[in-house]
Amino acid sequence: MVQIISGKEIGEEIRKDLTLEVESFKKETGITPGLAVVLVGENPASLVYVGQKEKACEQVGIISRKYALPENASQDEVLNLVDQLNNDSEIHGILVQLPLPVHLNESEILNRVSPQKDVDGFHPVNVGKLLLGEETFVPCTPQGIIELLERTGVEIKGKEAVVVGRSNIVGKPVAILLLQRHATVTICHTRTRDLAFHTKRAEILVVAAGKPHLIKGDMIKEGVVVIDVGVNRVNGKLVGDVDFESAKEVASAITPVPGGVGPMTVTMLLKNTLRAAKSLAQT
Ligand code: NAD
Questions:
Q1: Which H or E run includes 198?
Q2: Phi, psi of 24 (to 5 degrees)
Q3: Annotated catalytic residue 53
Q4: 30-114 against 140-262: fold identical
């Protein structure tokens, strides 16, 4: 019987622990962790994600403040807002919701966020630390994937891990985290010649391609653990990058979409925000 890895349930467990941790941090220091969410424009998916993040903050006792700028906001307006938040002592984490409108220079904006408040782990200083294996803010989705594997009791050490996708926010960092936990890691992407050759070898398969049903049951090996990161809207329904129906016949464990990786991403944001508040409280 295939095991369905519920990020919803595992995320809830972690949020319960976080609620207690936030409460005792508040008691000890008098500080309430604060997250600032910067939203530029009105991308419908971003509005949904920001809403989920605000709700989750409230659930565990973190204050969230939304800063909504119009679609035509200038680069300077966004940078000034980030500067202001960097200097705001009530804000411990800053999240710039992506994607930004195309006229904005995304990397300049992300680089402006103080590395100490970079709860998304996108600042080059934190990316560098991650690569070096130093303590840092780990990007939320990759961190959530590792938590899912570890809390499900999946041994990573020595395993053949295959990651489909090489984006800066999912593919590359999750590959690094798997490598740090001693998996043998292969990264596949759009120029990979024979995708199925690699995916068939995987004992742990992480798929973050943004292509609905890219991975089918006949492309994976018996007993593989499948983590489906993809979120695609097909005919009004959310589907992953893995064809769940055929893959679940072959895999030993698999994440559903929705209810798999998504809730873990938001939960790791809460964890990173508390961590930021704790470390800023010591400075
Ligand atoms: P992206 O578009 O930045 O990167 C996609 C990667 O997949 C690229 O590196 C590309 O080379 C690779 N790819 C695309 N088609 C491929 C193919 N046919 N064969 C092999 N490789 C292929 O996307 P991203 O930001 O990494 O997100 C990936 C997916 O994960 C999206 O569906 C996104 O919505 C979803 N996502 C979900 C969460 C979550 O919390 N659940 C978080 C982030 C992203």
A1: helix 195-199
A2: -75, -30
A3: yes
A4: yes
Please give the backbone phi and psi of residue 282, each rounded to the nearest 5 degrees, phi first.
Answer: -90, -10
Catalytic residue among 118, 120, 228, 241: 120
Q: Residue ranges of the domains in the chain? A: 30-114, 140-262
Contact predicate 63/32, CB 8 Å: yes
Rounded to the nearest angstrom, the distance between the alpha carbon of 33 and the centre of ligand 1 is: 31
Pocket lined around ligand 1, Cβ cut-off 6 Å: 141, 164-167, 169-171, 188-190, 192, 195, 208-211, 214, 229-232, 261-262, 265
The pLDDT profile of the chain, 283 residues, written as one tens digit per residue, is 999 999 999 999 999 999 999 999 999 999 999 999 999 999 999 999 999 999 999 999 999 999 999 999 999 999 999 999 999 999 999 999 999 999 999 999 999 999 999 999 999 999 999 999 999 999 999 999 999 999 999 999 999 999 999 999 999 999 999 999 999 999 999 999 999 999 999 999 999 999 999 999 999 999 999 999 999 999 999 999 999 999 999 999 999 999 999 999 999 999 999 999 999 999 8
C-alpha R_g of the chain: 19
Its pTM stands at: 0.97
Q: What is the Cα–Cα distance from 89 to 159, expressed in whole angstroms?
A: 44
CATH number of 140-262: 3.40.50.720
- Judge whether 83 counts as a catalytic residue: no
Domain over 30-114 is classified CATH 3.40.50.720:
no
